[in-house]
């Protein structure tokens, strides 16, 4: 787990809300506080969709919304003259990316034992922090997944020109 402070907030918000950078990430949760708090739990309710679309989502194993599915709603809540009091977005690394990361780094884990790798963006009092985290379905003392994921996040931010400083 690492904590990174995003140092160029305006640039990050443009990347988050207007570009496709995070579109493929499943949303674990989202909340935005302006005059009230808007919350999204990230769960995908396939019963809402027509049977063909619901079946397609089930075949793909989709249980979470993707950021691209809710980005425009979040943008409509955030935009305006006043900055939100706070917001929190928790993204999960897509399953395929997690599998690739484990394989590329020859980590001693089976993908079925990984619940997820998470990006937790939290804005409050004019400060935006990104906290990384991993969750396993098994107990292990091995922290190699944490170290590899943390480095992958740093590289992802650098590649997408998202400025940050490490917090201790």
Automatic annotation (TrEMBL):
It comes from Fusicatenibacter saccharivorans. This is Uncharacterized protein. Pfam families: DUF5721. It comes from the Bacteria. The lineage of its organism: Bacteria, Bacillati, Bacillota, Clostridia, Lachnospirales.
